[in-house]
Amino acid sequence: MVLRPPVEPMLAKARERMPPPAALPGGLVVQPKFDGYRTLVFTPWPAPGPVLIQSRRGSMIQARFPDLAAAAKALPDGWVLDGEVVVWAGEELSFASLQRRASAGGRTAARLAEALPAHFIAFDVLQADGVELLRRPYAERRATLEELFTGHGLTAPWTLCPETHDLATAREWLASWTRVPGVEGLVVKGRRQRYLPGTRGWYKIRRRDTAEGIVGAVTGTLRRPQSVLLGRYDREGVLRLVARSTLLHPEAVRDIAARLSPARPGHPWEGIHFTTSWGSRAPLEVVLVEPDLVAEMDVDTARVHGAWRHPARFARLREDMTPDEVTEFDAGSGPGEGAPDGQGAV
Fold this sequence. Notes:
This protein is an alpha+beta fold and about 350 residues long. The chain has two domains: about 10-205, D-amino Acid Aminotransferase, Chain A, domain 1 (2-Layer Sandwich), CATH 3.30.470.30; about 210-325, CATH 2.40.50.140. It has helices at about 65-70, 95-105, 105-115, 140-150, 165-175, 250-255, and strands spanning about 10-15, 30-35, 35-40, 50-55, 80-90, 90-95, 120-130, 130, 160, 185-190, 200-205, 210-220, 225-235, 240-245, 285-290, 295-300, 305, 305-310, 315. Strands 3, 4, 5, 6, 7, 8 and 9 form a seven-stranded mixed sheet that branches. Strands 12, 13, 14, 15, 16 and 19 form a six-stranded antiparallel sheet that branches. The chain is globular. Keywords: Ligase.
């Protein structure tokens, strides 16, 4: 069977810590988890044709990444590579730049390809020389991928994803590599695993840290808040949105509700339109509250424009802290640059 797009990529399910060696077939293989765009690259087979680049959701996006499509013409025909598209900004990965690339077309896409070149980090292969490999064990697919890189002398924009079988090394990666913006954590696979499209058969482990934010709004009601929206003041004294929490546990609901105060006129977020998730346009209904509570949150490393892209986990109220003691908002922290768009898309 020759693979043709769209093909659902194999996915990973979240874990808090490293699974035991016997959790996956054949023992564990660990790779860094990069914060990019999951993509599949198809080189033509059996007849000549264009290179196709597919997003995780099945869209064809080669027109948005003409530099990658052009570079893929140097690959042999009949291959399907699975990996992550990223954009480097100095020594960091810039998700903000990647977003610009992914949303641009036509002349803008060509211009951005020059200014913000894309790179492809390959971590699996689904087809080689027109032969489908989904049923082959991961270790065999990896060997095929390594032969592609060595045999064709692949260099930028192509990168072979590092991996290790040593759990001590993997733990060191989780502690040290995730300090680089754009490296979120680890992906764990089984050496004898088949590739199962659309199945969450791998594990992902994100590095998580603690941080503080000022409670500026909630979803739900003042008496029964469902989640909290957290901000930090910038140098001009403007309260900037930095995170939205996941759903609160019942104990946290009671604790927060007992301390919330309705917002007085002139709340810094009056008139701001919030959305349900990062990059979404779906409106989120919120209730503004007086920004006098500080919350500790459990966050991962994915940040853009100083805000966490993924929902934070509420840990506790910091009654020992006042809002002016919370770390100052920094739009340059994390892989993004510039200021937030003010839409509350977190």
